[in-house]
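Dear colleague,

Thank you for sharing your sequence with our group. We've completed the structure prediction you requested, and as agreed, I am returning the results in plain text so they can be pasted directly into your records. Please verify that the sequence below matches your submission; if there's any discrepancy, let me know and we will rerun it promptly.
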Amino acid sequence: MFLERYLSKYAGLSRKSILRLLHHGQIQVNEQTVHSRSFEVNAFSNISIEGKPLNIHKTAHYFMLNKPAGILSATKDPIHKTAIELIEGNESFDLHIAGRLDRATTGLLILTNDGKWSKKITEPVEKIPKTYFVETAQAISPQTAQVFEKGIYFKYEDITTRPANIEIMTTTTCKLTLYEGRYHQVKRMFSAVGNRVISLHRESMGDIVLDENLSPGEYRALNQTEIDSIKRKRE
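Please find the predicted structure tokens below.
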């Protein structure tokens, strides 16, 4: 949520007051002085105004969703239905998505309003494993595993992907585990070895495994063990 909207909604400040405080450097977010009204914050950002902490108690929410194909990993969209809209009461939760999926990709999607927690899932430095079931157009060659383990160079970002683990299931299906999440990464990796992804389904993120009892479009709250499994990753 933008800082201006957050302060207006939860601190009762007028737009004029917010702009004045920003101009004079009197608003800090997580000990950083902020001057932009569009600075992104959430319920767990530490905000101070004129040196005084803004105390707003909000309950943390954590959900897993079995994302169906055709649903956008977004908070809102004028045309397509979004993952956030599938969560009952989402407007009062200020949810965001921890690790987006393409519109056609299905499977585990995690939604929360705890920004610090979700960063441990999404930031590459955390090395949270993310496992996908992949179906390809052509046969998966044995050399694919070797290439993925070495990493693939993406010219656009000028980076080499981290080593990925692949378990070949059938001629055209496999389980692939990544330790980062880059734009269309799985599809681009297979394209680099001359293959094409037909379908993609995320099964797990860290120790959080998609509940087999959830049908596409259904969701449930994470249990404490699942929540704590991410919190422990940096320890």
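Summary note from our side: Residues 15-23 form the longest helix (9 residues).

Kind regards,
the structure core
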